[in-house]
Amino acid sequence: MKQPDHIDRQILQILSKEARIPLKTLAGLIGLSRSATGERVHNLEKSGIIRGYRADIGHLNSPNISAFLFITLNKTPAPQLLDQLAGYAEVRRVSSLSGQLDMIVELEVPSIDRLNDLRDLIATNDQVADLTTSIILRHDINRHQT
Domains in the chain, start-ordered, CATH in brackets? Predict the structure, then answer.
């Protein structure tokens, strides 16, 4: 196949965002006939540029990202930090611990960007000595359903 031209790149851009777009709609967006668009898509598939279509499925119960923040404090108690955490709607649970870690914060955020923003805001609190973030990949056992 020849190198993709600007129309092929336009097709690829649209398909990368919406792989299940109807061919008629795709044709309308790029300004070609349905048959010409279909031929271009077929050629992109045949050449291996389009290797397949897939469903990118997130959490079925929640489209959000869940994470734990493991916090070590400069000293305890840390009421100002608790007040700060209570002000974020994304904070689901805060637990104080004995041992090396002082606190675990469970978050549910809509994006990695928001996770980073919250993490930065919390890490800069004067009461926080150290903060580690772990994204929850899945809940293997969950007996506390809400």
Answer: 6-46 (1.10.10.10), 65-135 (3.30.70.920)
